[in-house]
Amino acid sequence: PYSHLFTENLIIVDKGIEQIVQLIDNITNHDQRTTYIFTSDHGMTDRGSHGSGHPVETETPFVIWGAGVEHWTSLNDDVSNHVAIDGVMVPSWDINQADVTPLISALLGQAIPKNNCGKLPRQYLNASKAYVANAMRKNADQLFQQYYQWRMQSSQKWFQWSISQKETDYVTIINKIRNDIEFANNESQYEKVITLCDVLMDVTLEAIDFYHVYYKNELLFILSFAMLGWLFIVLGKIFFLEDIFSEVDKKILFTGFVVIIVVCGYNLLQGVPKIVMFYFILPVFLWIPVLSKWRAYIAMINWKIFGQTILFIGCSELCVVAFFQRSVLSIFLVVNALYLTYHLRRQRDKHTILLFSIILSNIILAVFPMLPVVEKDSNHPFLLIISTLLWTIGNIIITGKSQENAFYRWIQFIVCVGLALNTLVSIHIIETGMVLSWLNQAMSWAFIAASLIVPLLTTVSITSRLTAIIVNLSGPFLMLSLSYEPLFLMVFSISLFIWLQSENEIFNQKEQISKLFFSSRLKTFKPVDFDDFRRSITFVLYMLVSFFGTGNIATVSSFDPNWVRLLVSTFSPFLMTGLIVFKLLVPILISVCVLRSLQIIIKVKAQTLFLLIFIICDLMCLNFFYLIKNKGSWLEIGSSISHFVIMEFTTIVLIFLYGCAKLMTELSVASFKYHGRFRYMLPFDSKSNKD
Fold first, then answer.
1. Secondary-structure percent of the chain, ordered helix, strand, coil, rounded to 5
2. Is the pLDDT of residue 688 over 60?
3. Is there a contact between 402 and 413 (Cβ–Cβ < 8 Å)?
């Protein structure tokens, strides 16, 4: 709003308005029968964004002049506010945007649209008291008809005792005010009619809102009850009830069907919508298998399990808080470092270097959630250059120490150095105001393709393949960054890798992580214990850090089209969206690859790990269900819905990414020396030892 282009645009719009008014006046021969309304749909911040609840984004101008509009100089009373225009105090009123609809209808003398939810701002009308009173009555009657349709649906209930007292009060109050309005109108008491219509519309809008959320409390309770049953089913699947659906008690099954028939019959008599009726019977289907195994569930409960459950739920709730306060993730990371340090110090080998690495990496990573988010126009080329140099040096050192063959090391070296040089040159070209050449863009695409292929040249050792994936995904992430994001990815990857090493030391002190392979096929699995719940919580913690480490994945305002500037020079929405999503998924994909490694190390079924994560996501999802809003700014409503949807889809996305991670970690075209011979595998197979 403070740019030169914006000032020019204001002048253009102002001249355009003048031309439109002159054109209409010329066509109508200046008959003074035209009304002009000038307004907008939203405001904006100094950065040009909008959508939140800040006044500069929600308050809009509203200027009206012409036929049927009262002139401000004739208004002395009933003025809510004044605004200074060229040193003159002009009266103004704050109205809702929905109020424009009945105002236009009153000016045109036409019926108000049936779905209107606005109130006529009568202060703007230059008309007789009788006309204004009649327009207010029409507005009140239009709102009453909406309320009446809702009330008629409710009155069809067979069992009237279920009608709430609030609903009865609305009927009494609204009917009383309508009768008073009719009496005052018959007596030509137009001022009283206008006042009573104001009151009636307020009460009617409140009643309409009451019916909009008529089943809210019942649905909240019943869906919470259904979710609780679902969580018990998942827990049964994890621990002991593989056949939870196959062995259902016949008495409980019969009772369940009776309950379904009763619930359906009652709701049909009450005229409940079918979709609401479905949710009312949903818990019955979920609780039938749970109640069939109630003895097994009771046998599990003890004070230790109860305490661990409370701790588990508490951690899940803190994860919910992280969506609103990113700094909570910093506390989580520090606590996780202390917990791992405590467990490692109890072992015979003190692991001094590992202990120091855990504390340092988590403390540095904990800084990022406390930094300002990378939003639109967050362009810091200096940080980007530093990040490129650090990643390049680190990648060269990692590649040089790799146990892979010389061919892979040379290819990796060429890709790392070439990508860094091309990125630095491209940043220089863009920051100096020049146009990025097609050659630089082509090289950027070529290096991205190479980064995805090079990891296939390594063996499927956990350390070799995991480091190769991190090294090569850092390149595309660098190209799609504007600020400190690459620094975050570096610390995030280091912290994940150290966490993986720590879990290996805690669970399996005898076997080094470098001797484990992604292609290992486990035949036996250990039973689930509390540590597995802790690891699942830790993984969700890292996943949330990847969500909110540099921005907010739950809001579109965190996405900047400038991310793709090194790859796309013309507007291409689908390609740009794909690249933005790819950037957002890079940290998550790395964390899923680490989860794949963890599953091999701790010898737990992948399905079990996902079920544990599923429980956490469901607990968070249930909480977000209670936080969904249908009023407020776009940002408040959109964020509340996106939080819920993100957690709904997280497990599905993780399953998809786990499949991608499995392909990335097991697919190999590398040769591996195995007991004196070279074997070429796709993918590498470590099961056979006959050779």
1. 70, 5, 25
2. no
3. no
SS3 of residue 519 by DSSP = coil
Which 3 state secondary structure label does DSSP give 452?
helix
Going by C-beta distance under 8 Å and a sequence separation of 6 or more, which residues neighbour residue 220? Answer: 625, 626
Geometric angle at alpha carbon 169, from 165 and 172, rounded to 5°: 140
HSE toward the beta carbon, residue 97, CA cutoff 13 A: 11
Tens of pLDDT, residue by residue over 7-27, are 899 999 999 999 999 999 999
83-98 pLDDT, tens per residue?
888 888 888 888 999 9
Residue 671, pLDDT > 60, answer: no
Cβ pair 160, 194 in contact under 8 A = no
Please state the three-class secondary structure of 398-450 as a single string. HHHCCCCCHHHHHHHHHHHHHHHHHHHHHHHHHHCCCCCCHHHHHHHHHHHHH
Dihedral angle computed from the Cα positions of residues 186, 192, 194 and 196, in that order, rounded to the nearest 10 degrees: -100
Burial of 674 (0-12, 13-18, 19+ CB in 10 A): middle
Whether the pLDDT of residue 552 is over 90: the answer is no
Q: What is the pLDDT of residue 544?
A: 92
Q: How far is CA 6 from CA 10, 18, 19, 47, 375, in A?
A: 6, 19, 20, 12, 21
Which pair of tokens denotes residue 371?
A: 């930094």
More confident residue, 297 or 63: 63
Query: Which pLDDT value is given to residue 77?
Result: 56
